[in-house]
Write a structure and sequence with these properties.
single chain, alpha/beta, seven-stranded mixed β-sheet, five-stranded mixed beta barrel, 17 helices, 23 strands, about 20% strand
Length: about 525
């Protein structure tokens, strides 16, 4: 998937105490505005442990506790009355979900949401650490916000998310971006009220980053976007340790939510009228593998969720190694379980897969695809692919191209490898030039584009069911939504169709989207 496709996919306008509290309070460090290396070094020695893959591999299997006692402290209930917050989100759906939680917490504290930077009393940058480009965007935004902070000294500017879990990033902020008031990590979101209070009244820089993941906090408030589609987190963390990926260090070990809590949340969303949910996890089909007192996996969960009266259920992102036969068997039952499956392969070369520590082979991946296609002949498969992994040869890249052709992916998120400090791959010397990597990415995108366009032609003159999400950002007279197989459809129709599932006859196919006309009488005017 190239930049053009990503832009096209986002052209829909939406219509609109936990454990360790004492130690957490003790761990808050007020760092006075200083660029002293000694001060920073002392701080990190005592309270911050940078990502360390060897320590992370040996991390314990301590019992993860589930807490249902989250509450906004009484003295912070109305602290935001008459004030506004803005959260800018970078990266994956998990970050989007974290933003919903932070928005929920701030709303319960009395704050109102705004999209205008100048109106905000709190600005949080919820960051991504997957690629260098994402980090550069965040640091660029931090720089752009400096004049506003000088103009509004009481503005609280915070950096959170995956970038905050990296020592080098926090170090850089402390040294070069003194106007940032608050830094906290992915395991500290439930501590947001206390952190805001410290930043508000302490008037000193607040840094709280737990390098050890926390427990599962169940009753965190959320402010979701719209009432049509919802993210439902079912697990946290990742135990795969792919050599290019920082996620196991920024998100911690795998921790699954209890199935009864997930089922209750989905039932609640169904009762509210949501039409689609997406189950989230860094490695979503490893769900349940960390349970010690029950045998229960993603297939079991999906089998229960399909009985709930909600039209569509998806999940992302899955790992080929954990995609078991039981899950395929359950998905094949259909109904509200959709057969669009995102299955990241990353490379078609066994040598590169081994260097990536993916722990499957080209052959086992193709066998998994065969099983999926046998059980669900019409399944749509999409994937992630990394081009230019250190020292990738032309032959190894050609193996990726041949796998893409053999599987027939209908879309792919494609990237040039981006070194992440703290990962084994980042230490590799690379003999492949950036120009060669760009050429390979171009060739891969050309192939993916061709396959996508060919798959879209199959929809010509067909009637598809579209969940209407809103108006097109390009044209308010055009509605837009997605099919069951995640194809973007633009069409003319009444505004009353928004939030409904309607029949649309396809009149034109493009590389990444479809155009059509709504079949009459498929939606009632409410």
């Amino acid at each position: 998937m190239n930049e053009q496709q990503r832009k096209e996919q986002s052209q829909i306008k939406q219509v609109n105490n936990p454990t360790d509290v004492k130690s957490a309070v003790d761990n808050i460090k007020r760092i006075k505005n200083t660029s002293s290396d000694e001060m920073i070094a002392k701080y990190f020695k005592t309270t911050f442990e940078p990502p360390n893959i060897n320590k992370a591999r040996k991390r314990g299997r301590d019992e993860v506790k589930v807490h249902y006692d989250f509450a906004i402290p009484e003295d912070m209930h109305n602290i935001g009355k008459g004030k506004k917050f803005l959260i800018r989100t970078y990266g994956c759906q998990m970050n989007e979900h974290d933003t919903e939680v932070m928005a929920g917490i701030l709303t319960e504290m009395g704050y109102e949401s705004t999209i205008e930077t100048d109106e905000a009393d709190i600005i949080l940058l919820n960051t991504c650490a997957i690629r260098e480009n994402a980090e550069n965007k965040v640091f660029g935004e931090i720089g752009h916000l400096k004049p506003l902070k000088l103009e509004k000294p009481d503005l609280i500017l915070g950096v959170c998310g995956c970038m905050s879990q990296q020592e080098s990033v926090v170090n850089r902020i402390l040294k070069k971006h003194q106007h940032v008031d608050l830094i906290f990590g992915t395991h500290n979101i439930h501590r947001l009220p206390q952190l805001i209070k410290e930043a508000m009244f302490g008037k000193e820089k607040i840094v709280e980053v737990w390098s050890k993941e926390g427990d599962v906090i169940e009753n965190l408030p959320k402010v979701r976007k719209g009432k049509i589609k919802a993210w439902v987190n079912i697990m946290y963390g990742c135990d795969k340790f792919c050599t290019y990926c920082i996620v196991p260090m920024t998100r911690g070990k795998e921790r699954s939510r209890l199935p009864e809590d997930i089922i209750q949340e989905v039932r609640h969303l169904a009762a509210q009228g949501y039409k689609e949910i997406t189950l989230l996890g860094q490695n979503v089909n490893a769900y349940g593998k960390d349970f010690t007192n029950r045998t229960y996996g993603l297939g079991d969960l999906m089998d229960e969720l399909r009985k709930i009266d909600i039209p569509r259920i998806r999940f992302t992102t899955s790992h080929p190694r954990d995609f078991d036969d039981h899950l395929i068997e359950v998905l094949a039952k259909g109904g509200n379980l959709l057969d669009h499956i995102h299955l990241p392969v990353q490379s078609g070369s066994n040598e590169i897969l081994k260097k990536m520590n993916r722990k499957y082979t080209r052959e086992s991946y193709l066998e998994l695809v065969r099983k999926i296609r046998k059980a669900m002949p019409n399944a749509t498969l999409t994937t992630d692919i990394i081009v230019g992994f250190p020292n990738e040869t032309e032959e190894q890249f050609e193996e990726t191209l041949s796998l893409v052709e053999e599987v027939g992916f209908e879309a792919a998120y494609t990237f040039i490898y981006s070194p992440r400090e703290g990962t084994p791959a980042a230490r590799k010397k690379d003999n492949v030039s950036e120009e060669v990597k760009k050429q390979r990415l171009y060739r891969l995108n050309e192939l993916v584009n061709t396959q996508s366009a060919a798959s879209m032609k199959n929809y010509q003159d067909k009637v598809v069911k579209v969940l209407v999400e809103g108006e097109s950002k390009k044209d308010p007279n055009i509605l837009a939504g997605y099919t069951e197989r995640n194809k973007l459809v633009n069409f003319k129709g009444p505004k009353s169709a928004i939030g409904q599932i309607v029949d649309v006859k396809i009149t034109e196919t493009k590389t990444w989207s479809l155009s059509g006309v709504m079949v009459e009488n498929t939606v009632g005017v409410e």
